[in-house]
Design goal:
The complex is a heterotrimer. Chain B is an all-alpha fold. Chain B has three helices and no strands. In chain B, helix 2 runs antiparallel to helix 3. The relative contact order of chain B is 0.06. By secondary structure, chain C is mainly α. Among the domains of chain C are: about 80 residues, NADH-ubiquinone/plastoquinone oxidoreductase chain 6, subunit NuoJ (Four Helix Bundle (Hemerythrin (Met), subunit A), Up-down Bundle); about 35 residues. Classes of the chains: A mainly alpha, B mainly alpha, C mainly alpha. Chains in contact: A-B, A-C, B-C.
Chain lengths: ~100, ~120, ~180
């Protein structure tokens, strides 16, 4: 059995990579993908702790997180499409108006 | 537990080896020539009708988005389907409870389906 | 022993392809690398004795969500677009902050997150166990998810459905 600690470390590394992507990129979709990466790192933590403490609650939380991620992807990408429609760019720096 | 996944791992390895082999064989055996017609999509087919960099109808996105939402709905059906039978065998009340829960779930998403239908997101004219 | 080998291989795959996501300029390459990274995470879930979660990870994340991402990138033709480069200050501060964050997190996890080893009972997390637990303790969140999905449908259609009257008969959007 692989120690839970290693999964936590892997998850920490993936989460930091996601943070780095959000901080350094300008392309909205890439930022969104980095957020998905962070969500997945958290999911890995949930499942690692679920096995460590023999609790199924963590897995059910991951299930709900997946549903929320799908809803979030649908709406978030719709926002980017709408923004591209109006601004011809999905650069997050161009999204500087409340309405257009 | 994990050992029952060994066949999948072996299959992955075989798939990777096959893909790498045939791609590299192509590269080793084939003759290298790079001219514009070689790099076309549909090589030695009809010439392209139009550029592919033009604006696309948003309908495509809407269909893909609906696929995701109903895919998640199906994912929630799996655990329910697995436990429904044993719940139904244990008592009638449990069966009714489980059935009603899933009915409410599906009906709520059914409202979304009707909404999509009324917004004519399925119509392609 | 064999498990450890698989863990390290797929952990390396997950980290490397995650790095490709944030470093590569072409979003199509980024999306495809993210699919590989998610697949490696599914292998992690198998190693954590959660096969149902691994299946869901592949069906929902790699199979559906990333396809939607790829779809949008292709639809908007973003792979040809030049992304303006970030200001160097922001870029290096970002790298510095996130690597400091990573190093400190890994240090503290390595030092303090040492946990006891094998469980007394085998950890069973198949679809049956998850379903049983979900329908006894998580009924209300389960129904709330359907409302969330309904809201997502309505929201996404409202956001994208405004070009209705500007379409011509061939279905192509006129600007």
């Amino acid at each position: 059995m692989i120690p839970t600690q290693w999964f936590l470390i892997l998850s920490a590394i993936l989460f930091s990579i996601g943070v780095c992507g959000v901080l350094t990129r300008k392309n909205g979709i890439t930022i969104f993908m980095s957020i998905e990466l962070m969500v997945n790192a958290v999911n890995l933590t949930f499942i690692a702790y679920a096995r460590q403490f023999d609790q199924l609650h963590g897995l059910i939380f991951v299930f709900f997180i997946m549903a929320i991620a799908a809803a979030e992807a649908a709406v978030g990408l719709a926002i980017f499409i709408s923004m591209y429609h109006h601004k011809d760019s999905i650069d997050v720096d161009d999204a500087n108006l409340m309405h257009w | 537990m994990t050992h029952s996944y060994l066949p999948i791992l072996i299959m992955l390895a075989i798939a990777a080896v096959f893909g790498a082999t045939f791609l590299s064989l192509n590269w080793v055996v084939g003759r290298h020539q790079r001219n514009p017609s070689k790099l076309d999509p549909y090589e030695s087919g009809v010439p392209l009708l139009d550029v592919n960099r033009k604006r696309v109808n948003v309908r495509f996105y809407q269909i893909a988005m609906l696929f995701i939402i109903f895919d998640i709905e199906a994912a929630f059906l799996y655990p329910w389907a697995v436990i429904y039978r044993e719940g139904a065998l244990s008592s009638r009340a449990t069966a009714m409870f489980l059935f009603t829960e899933m009915l409410v779930f599906i009906l709520l998403l059914g409202v979304g389906y009707v909404y999509v239908w009324k917004k004519k997101a399925f119509d392609w004219k | 022993m064999f498990e450890y080998l698989i863990f390290f291989f797929f952990a390396a795959v997950a980290v490397i392809f995650a790095l490709v996501v944030i470093l590569h300029r072409n979003p199509v390459v980024g999306a495809l690398s993210l699919v590989v990274s998610f697949f490696a995470l599914a292998v992690m879930y198998v190693l954590l004795d959660a096969p149902f979660m691994a299946a869901l990870q592949i069906i929902v994340y790699s199979g559906a969500i990333m396809v939607l991402f790829l779809f949008v990138i292709m639809l908007l033709n973003l792979q040809h677009e030049k992304e303006p480069s970030t200001r160097p200050v922001q870029q290096w501060l970002g790298y510095l902050t996130s690597s400091a964050f990573a190093i400190s997190l890994v240090y503290y996890l390595g030092k303090y997150a040492v946990m006891s080893g094998a469980l007394p009972v085998p950890f069973i997390a198949d679809a049956r166990a998850i379903g049983r637990r979900m329908f006894e303790a998580y009924i209300f969140p389960f129904e709330a998810v359907s409302i969330l999905l309904l809201a997502a449908i309505v929201g996404a259609l409202m956001l994208t459905g405004r070009s209705e009257q500007r379409e011509n008969t061939s279905g192509e959007v006129i600007r």
